[in-house]
Amino acid sequence: MTQNAPARKQQMADHTTPLIRNCWYVAALAGEIGRELKERTLLGKTVLMYRTQDGKPVIMQNRCPHRNFPLSKGRLDGDNVVCGYHGMNFNTQGQCVFMPSLPNAPTHARIASYPVAERGPLVWIWMGDPAKADPALIPQTPWLSDPGWKTVNGQFHVKTNYVAMHENLLDQTHFPILHAKTGIGTPQYSKSKMEVHVEGDVVHLYRSLLDSPPPDIYGVPMRLTDRNVDRYSDGYFASPALHYAHARIVNKEPREGEKEEYRFTITHIYTPETQGSIHYWWFNSRDCNLDDADADRFLLESSTTAYQEDVDALNWIQETVEKETEPFEELSFGPDRPGIAMRKILLRLANEEAMAAAPATQESAVAAPAVQQPAAA
Amino acid sequence: MTQNAPARKQQMADHTTPLIRNCWYVAALAGEIGRELKERTLLGKTVLMYRTQDGKPVIMQNRCPHRNFPLSKGRLDGDNVVCGYHGMNFNTQGQCVFMPSLPNAPTHARIASYPVAERGPLVWIWMGDPAKADPALIPQTPWLSDPGWKTVNGQFHVKTNYVAMHENLLDQTHFPILHAKTGIGTPQYSKSKMEVHVEGDVVHLYRSLLDSPPPDIYGVPMRLTDRNVDRYSDGYFASPALHYAHARIVNKEPREGEKEEYRFTITHIYTPETQGSIHYWWFNSRDCNLDDADADRFLLESSTTAYQEDVDALNWIQETVEKETEPFEELSFGPDRPGIAMRKILLRLANEEAMAAAPATQESAVAAPAVQQPAAA
Amino acid sequence: MTQNAPARKQQMADHTTPLIRNCWYVAALAGEIGRELKERTLLGKTVLMYRTQDGKPVIMQNRCPHRNFPLSKGRLDGDNVVCGYHGMNFNTQGQCVFMPSLPNAPTHARIASYPVAERGPLVWIWMGDPAKADPALIPQTPWLSDPGWKTVNGQFHVKTNYVAMHENLLDQTHFPILHAKTGIGTPQYSKSKMEVHVEGDVVHLYRSLLDSPPPDIYGVPMRLTDRNVDRYSDGYFASPALHYAHARIVNKEPREGEKEEYRFTITHIYTPETQGSIHYWWFNSRDCNLDDADADRFLLESSTTAYQEDVDALNWIQETVEKETEPFEELSFGPDRPGIAMRKILLRLANEEAMAAAPATQESAVAAPAVQQPAAA
């Protein structure tokens, strides 16, 4: 894999591969969007986020089509947004319905209003071809809203490309090294056999580890730090937007008041802000001891510490990659197989989008700017 | 109008259009230039400004032709400037008259000394083809020096291209929206008919509003906030460097001690620092109540507040335009007619300069560096 | 000499000329390298520096060949360095000898371990073609380790290209101007005849000044400020990495306890960090009054002050050169002859390297990324 060597044929995605647009990404946590206008950059585009009076999330292009004023500096008028420069008023579909200086609304003036969908704590957005925005493609994350689960969560802004972050999650051989201090992964776990399955655009990891002490991140919230358990783990690169990992832990000789089986799900959500930065949200969910505030605190602290180690590492890698301008080969090894599978999927998706987009772009490039006839002002 | 799409034929100037060089710009306020060497960047070039012992302003290229040392880090020697590196001494015409390490002055060593002209509080500069630097082309701004007028003024450094600033001034439909809090423009004024005249490279706006209450910016200094007046307004895009607006206000039934007619002139001076930043000076002048310190204070505060709103808006637009890299069309409407007329003038001027400059640039590119024979040191 | 005009044939090196790689540069002072991992950027490459348990300096490429993690964020394991991401373990030759996730070390995984050589207080590095890294090419600087000499030293990080710094040292006509306050160079010295010899890739200046008061930088440490001396000076552009100047001062009528002859050597070491920045170390050495702490203090202060003037000047020039984007000719004069000779040498060396490197680069560009077979993890 080289950087700064565009002529060379790439075999897998890297930090230079164009972002995938035909994909549902998380734009924000549900709680981040309200009746205030909020700006965020997603996939290199600045967007405006707010809720209608009925509470529905709206995400639109954040530049007025008239003179590029950022609509997030304007104001809400009911469910509509009003540009702060000349007062152009757009409805939730992005169509201009009023302009104070014109006798009739210029209804051909439109901005993109992106398909959105709220699912529990997540607001998803589709910024690619609207015709392909099928809500059925939104990944299912029921554990995040199920009252039978308890979740702690956090977020990071990471100055790195999202491909390296996904690879980090598909690669468990870094646990004992990068996370030596935080103790993610036990020595036994690192040596357990891992199955890798590529199913369509999904990469699935499976690993089991029998009769072994659980790591604290499971043992503490289960209150089973004193004995061996059986552990079955599945990890999924589910989409460019999402990686999640399920763990099922079997308590072989449950005592009074204990469960026979415990489940944990860790959800990592990446939304590229730009080619070189990410909005990163993580969720640590469990189906046991839901009211245990000590467990909440422990999981929040230990997760934050461990993910910060990943974030630091990926920031450093991006800095290193940007510091040197000469092409540089990456060496890959057997344990990189899941990451390579994911990177080949991303490269294929990017190439498919590039081929589909090429003619459309040319068409838009020859469109003349529209000028409406003067109004009798 | 697109950005990042240079191949596409443009119909009017935008933030990517090359700056106009054959034009008188304001380099500085008269009071900014003295016997200290002062550096400023104008039209992308670093210049050196000072006054001779007789008080004449001198503006020269701020790089020594020998090893590029910024002359502003040197010192004055009478009317001449001395480079701080090797002591090359340049007269006010930019010709080297002495170099300590050479027996004879290298009189072929020259730097550009720009045509300048001081007019009241303004020092104008011509950075284009010197052969075209006709002082008769300097716009007249007599109200800035006439003792019958009183002026308050201020300045901004704006991180935006100057085209958008000029368009902002030619567009009065943003008054009730962007300036909603500061109350520039009354509702009646916004609805009054506007005439637009394009006269050569000048765009002239005319508007009258009869029997209507004056906005505070006129009413307070006239002390006529309690009644209706007739108001006649002219606005001029006078050159790439200057926009000014005259208001004549008729006091229909003057009481004792009041004038029958009041005049106001607001002057906006833009000098591109770079393609994406401006030196902006403004002046608010009146012909009434010249000694009214309260009026001065009111005008200073209200003007500063209102122009800050414009500056903020244009900064936000520039940020938005720079954030996204894809081409983007602007939509234009009837009220944009004056701005579009101005932008077509600027595009034509830029194209004319590009055609005139092309051969000259090629010639200079083949000139060999001059090397004088060694002196007996 | 033009900038931003790559098509024009250059006659001498300037700030745009590619850096010379086949050259011994100083990577660090000996005292800067120890058993901690230290990162530094040299010639545009990030390197890792440490010492083995035996105290030998090691300098290696600071990016793991696996996933570009900066090895300086890892740790030492005896004499080896361990990547902080997946634990790849490299010996001092840069060869991977262990990877925790693989059954056998991937011995084809290698990083560059640069030829280094410690000479007194200096650790030299060769970052060009390793086959040409002849230690005999390391410039001799015996005065820096000889117990008969006393040295004070300092360092700067300069935001300028190294060519202009070398030219500054070869040009003594700037002494009375740029260093007017610090009094480097006496008026008599400036007028003394200078011989310039170009010997291979070395530029040698020679100047003598008889029966003249010494400048304080020599007079104070000699304690001979009260009389005239004879002074013989040699300056050497010794390589892209090094400039040094020897002064021999003859005390014509030595009094009791005085020497007949005094020697001073000033050493300037430049290592390009990037195309536009330098690590700069200087050393002021004398063979007299070795225990004179007042002389040490005086030399440290006066040298720091004077070199800061050069550093400021070159920073300003680089800023000026970067501010304007149009091509700009440099004028050169007789006294610039040594600098021009040096700049022609640098241009020739750069051109030779470019021609030699061209085919090698193409080969590496077609190499496929190596993927080792999966290990039974």
Task: Explain briefly what this protein structure is.
With 377 residues, chain A is α+β, with helices and mostly antiparallel strands.
Give an overview of the whole structure.
The structure is a homotrimer. By secondary structure, chain A is α+β, with helices and mostly antiparallel strands. Chain A has two domains: about 25-135, 3-layer Sandwich (Rieske Iron-sulfur Protein); about 140-350, Naphthalene 1,2-dioxygenase Alpha Subunit, Chain A, domain 1, CATH 3.90.380.10. Helix content of chain A is about 25%, strand content about 30%. Chain A contains six helices and 17 strands. The first copy, chain A, has helices at about 160-170, 175-180, 185-190, 215-220, 295-325, 335-365, and strands at about 25-30, 40, 45-50, 55-60, 75, 80, 90, 95-100, 115-120, 120-125, 150-160, 195-200, 200-210, 230-240, 240-250, 260-275, 275-285. Chain A has a seven-stranded antiparallel sheet, with helices on one face. Chain A has a four-stranded antiparallel sheet with strand order 5-6-7-8, with no helix packed on it. In chain A, helix 1 (about 160-170) runs antiparallel to helix 6 (about 335-365). The longest helix of chain A is centred in the C-terminal third of the chain and has 31 residues, at about 295-325. The model of chain A is unreliable at about 1-10 and about 360-375 (pLDDT under 50). Chains in contact: A-B, A-C, B-C. The interface between A and C is large, with 39 and 40 residues.
